[in-house]
Amino acid sequence: MNELLRKYEEEKQRLNELGQNSLEKGVPLAQNEAVQAQSRKVDELIVRFHRGRAGGERRLR
Questions:
Q1: Where are the beta strands (DSSP E) in 9-57?
Q2: 3-state secondary structure of 46
Q3: Confidence of residue 56 (pLDDT cuts 50, 70, 90)
Q4: What is the phi/psi pair of residue 21, to 5°?
């Protein structure tokens, strides 16, 4: 789980950098494919984290 959180933090930082660069260039975030791809990657990590937590909670019951 800690590895997943570390990866999430790295990917979120990369998303923030891409988003900032896009805005500085005047490119809307929704039109920047690199930002959108990175956002999907971050979303997938969030889903994996929550699925892992839900699985752990079920095992504790």
A1: none
A2: helix
A3: low
A4: -60, -40
